[in-house]
Amino acid sequence: MENKALRTVQDVGAIAFLIAFSHFVPLPLYSYAVVCFLVIWFLLRREGKTFRSIGLVKNGFSVKAVLIGLVSALLWVGFMQFIYIPVIKNLFVVPDYTEYDFIKGNISKLLMIITAAWLVGGFYEEVVFRGYIQNVLEKRFFKGSAVLWSIIVTSVLFGLYHWQQDIFGVIAAILGGLFWGILYKKFDNNLWIPILSHAIFDTITLVLIYTDRFGNLYR
């Protein structure tokens, strides 16, 4: 019982660290991602696991995975563009989202941010949330319960991770977390699929912001 309690404290501490570190220790040029990635590597290795254990396998990156990532990203862009944003703008007074205004009309900055979107938004965030946190919740916190609970809790944490945005950005992130969490489980924990979907979604959205066609809201 004592070992189980200690393990629970360690898991909670690891999850809290992964969510809070980038906000409270703002290292330059997304280098916080390297630190957190190494922490996950250490945590997995301590259990005799590798990144393959969370779905980051070589044969998972395939033409099929790319196509699923592309189609799902287009669906999610459509949801955000034609359902989520119009609905909240109709119901609430929503301030214009200006965080990425600096890329408008500047192709070099657009390409720089797209690169960051693939490395951090797509790869890093999916490894942390769907790959590590969702698996920890499923296997140790909600063991024997519906998988959906691990997806829901991970998605809420993913939303809170975006607390630097306003409430509408947090909600958008929660919904995105649900979407990518379900994709992850639907395709047998192939982590490349939510990585590709997330990265392509960010890319399309950044291009729409660059051309001032995204409803002036969230990436």
TrEMBL record:
Transmembrane residue ranges: 12-44, 65-87, 107-129, 141-161, 167-184, 191-210
Single GO MF annotation: endopeptidase activity
Keywords: Hydrolase, Membrane, Metalloprotease, Protease, Transmembrane, Transmembrane helix
Gene Ontology biological-process entries: CAAX-box protein maturation; proteolysis
Pfam short name (any one): Rce1-like
Domain of life: Bacteria
Coiled-coil portions: none
Domain CAAX prenyl protease 2/Lysostaphin resistance protein A-like: 109-203
Record-given protein name: CPBP family intramembrane metalloprotease
Organism: Arcticibacter tournemirensis
